[in-house]
Amino acid sequence: MQHPQSQLFQPITINGLTVPHRLWVAPMCMYSSVDGQPGDWHIAHYGSFAIGRAGLIMTEATSVSPEGRISPDDAGLWNDEHTKGWRRVVEVVHGMNSLIGMQLSHAGRKASTALPTRGRGYVPPAEGGWVTVGPTDLPYEPFAAPVALDHDGIAKVIKNFRDAACRAVEAGFDLVEVHAAHGYLLGQFLSPTSNTRTDEYGKDNAGRTRLLREVVEAVREVIPAEMPLVVRLSATEWVVGGVTVDDTIEVIRGLVGVDLISVSSGGNSPGQHIVPGPGYQQPLSRKIRAEVDIPVGVAGLITSPQQAEAAIVTGDTDIVFAARQFLREPNFALRAAAELGGELEWVWQYNKAKYWNSIP
Q1: What's the CA angle centered on 226, arms 58 and 92, to 5 degrees?
Q2: Which residue in 184, 201, 350, 355 is the catalytic one?
Q3: Tens of each residue's pLDDT in the chain, 360 residues
Q4: Euclidean distance between CA atoms 152 and 160, whole angstroms
Q5: Cα 78 from Cα 57, distance rounded (Å)
Q6: N or C, where is the chain less crowded by C-beta within 10 Å?
Q7: Catalytic site includes residue 122
Q8: Domain segments of the chain: what residues?
Q9: Complete DSSP assignment for 264-330
């Protein structure tokens, strides 16, 4: 059957990296690390997407410090043993001719929470958790109140991101993403609902965006000039008085050295009101893409090849990030290419399955 040329399966160059197509694996927490260390699970997990020929694979939110983990079981990149562990993952992915990016994160006041299978409540220090930090001592209800970061604490956060970015380069990752979405620490600083500071890291838009700008500058300084730097943002908080898409556009315009914006939304307020549906975040990416001069990617209930193709064709986004669909179907990109007429090379070990009418 002849197909029109698929736009989803056209290559894209981000800074110095050319990616073979635009259907990428979104970051997804796995809660499967011990003391932050990636292990055999991570090799199998990310390797499955490489076999399935995803355009690029993003890691889960990987903490830049022990206290930045979402849960005690989260992955990290704050020491050299983590670098060795992640290098094993990168080598497996690269060995199958695929690409992988590192998402660097700090959960701030939303840290020290239990696994989803245990209710996601706050884990106190007596039970293996820790005291959390935030822009102020305002808690994310019903979690414990954080300790407000002082200037030394802020400097430490910036250094932690810088050092983790160095380790990501050493481990061989193809790009680095700074996670400033979903109500984690950098997003907490961006929002007037969580950042009521009166110093130079709060008070007004310039103050609330300062930490993100300084983190981006620190990361950009230590990664290669040709390596893409991505920032993930919650384009809107879905609450009255919170960050709006227009605010996010202004944030992006103030960032220097960023090559791609990954668009998501929400996560900073338990009072948010989201009505999810297929592609529900694409109106946000569409508006951002029309207003800024760097590429954007978007996630959000994108579950079929045709839906992903339409997101590119209509100009909603430059990159489609899929999450749960890749968990359901690690070969999602291969199926999408078959249905849309894209050209993807299968790993040779699976060639017998490429054609439905092949003879055993």
Answers
A1: 40
A2: 184
A3: 445 689 999 999 999 999 999 999 999 999 999 999 999 999 999 999 999 999 999 999 999 999 999 999 999 999 999 999 999 999 999 999 999 999 999 999 999 999 888 877 899 999 999 999 999 999 998 899 999 999 999 999 999 999 999 999 999 999 999 999 999 999 999 999 999 999 999 999 999 999 999 999 999 999 999 999 999 999 999 999 999 999 999 999 999 999 999 999 999 998 898 888 999 999 999 999 999 999 999 999 999 999 999 999 999 999 999 999 999 999 999 999 999 999 899 998 998 888 755 555
A4: 12
A5: 21
A6: C
A7: no
A8: 12-353
A9: E---S-TT------TTTTHHHHHHHHHH-SS-EEE-SS--SHHHHHHHHHTTS-SEEEESHHHHH-T
Q: Write down how long the chain is.
A: 360
Amino acid residing at 186: L
Confidence (pTM): 0.95
The rounded distance, in Å, linking the Cα atoms of 6 and 339 is 10
